[in-house]
Amino acid sequence: MRDLIVAAICVMGLVASGAAQAATVLVTGSNRGLGYEFARQYAEQGWSVIATARNPERAVALNELAARHSNITIEKLDVLDFEEIATLARKYTGTPIDVLINNAGVLGDLDGQTLGTFDYENFQQVMGVNVFGVLAVSEAFREHVATSQQKKIIGITSGAGVISRGGGGGNLHFYRTSKVALNMGLKGLASDLKDRGVVVGIVAPGTADTGMRRELVGERAAQDQDPADAVAGMMNVIAMLTQANSNQPYNYDGKPMPW
Ligand SMILES: NC(=O)c1ccc[n+]([C@@H]2O[C@H](COP(=O)([O-])OP(=O)(O)OC[C@H]3O[C@@H](n4cnc5c(N)ncnc54)[C@H](OP(=O)(O)O)[C@@H]3O)[C@@H](O)[C@H]2O)c1
């Protein structure tokens, strides 16, 4: 926690000196839910935002947001499409990306991930978006991040992927498995990119009322926190992350999460 506080003071100093103003963030899945909030809040803080969505033409809210904020650029990116990832990375060659937020994620079909009716095609899709996509985007953009000032790659994990809490199974086998694999994938990236000064952070939003939560718990999602609050919290955590303190996942409220 002491490391987090020291790092926060450094970041506040950067902001106060104006040095952080030209920072760039790339967000995956930014057309709705938490991704939209990341795009909105970073844009309002004056960041240059590369807001990606797999169907930009259908991203009504994001297009309206970009119309109000000239610092948002919308790009097409399906994280399952490795060619599209490579093309976008090439397009931004030479552009430093301070923070890469691997936000895009899927829950998967709930019946299809219940023991007895496992749907392995659906399993591949969940692993594809939540794990392979994160590694592929991070691999493709690692140079953009490594040449930036803040050098941060972020993955959005979930309490559903905490093995030490016990439980598991039920109708979330694939999603839980994907988030555990995501955590290990990000740990691996952190080791590989340590010498380049890259910070790889794992952050969780708690439960926030988004389409994903509606799929899982229906109307009860109305009792979850506002996505704006979850994202504001995660952005504070991201700002505080350093190589020294990022050796564990953090919840949106800054509390370390167990594995
Ligand atoms: N909400 C929570 O309480 C909660 C809790 C823990 C973790 N999380 C994590 O937070 C992240 C965001 O979740 P959310 O709640 O905002 O979910 P959401 O409202 O369902 O939004 C998911 C986003 O991911 C995008 N996406 C899905 N497949 C994609 C693909 N192949 N390529 C690119 N984008 C794709 C979706 O785009 P389309 O609109 O095109 O489908 C959408 O923008 C996820 O990683 C999730 O696991 C959320």
Secondary-structure blueprint:
Layout (H helix, E strand, L loop, with lengths): L1 H15 L7 E4 L5 H12 L3 E6 L6 H9 L3 E5 L5 H10 L7 E4 L17 H27 L5 E5 L16 H21 L5 E6 L6 H7 L9 H14 L9 E2 L8
Parallel strand pairs: 1-2, 1-4, 2-3, 4-5, 5-6, 6-7
Helix pairs in contact: 1-8, 2-8, 4-5, 5-6
Bound molecules: NADP nicotinamide-adenine-dinucleotide phosphate.
The site of NADP nicotinamide-adenine-dinucleotide phosphate has 27 residues, from helix 2 and helix 7.
Summarize the structure.
By secondary structure, the chain is α/β, with parallel strands linked by helices.
Low-pLDDT runs: 1-20
- Helix share bin: 40-55%
The global form is: globular
In spatial order, strands of the major sheet run 3-2-1-4-5-6-7
- The DSSP helix count reads 8
Question: Regarding quaternary structure, how should these chains be classified?
Answer: single chain
What is the average per-residue confidence, as pLDDT, rounded to a whole number?
93
Helix-strand pattern: HEHEHEHEHEHEHHE
Q: Report the biggest beta sheet as strand number plus sense, adding barrel if it closes.
A: 7 strands, parallel
CATH superfamily: NAD(P)-binding Rossmann-like Domain
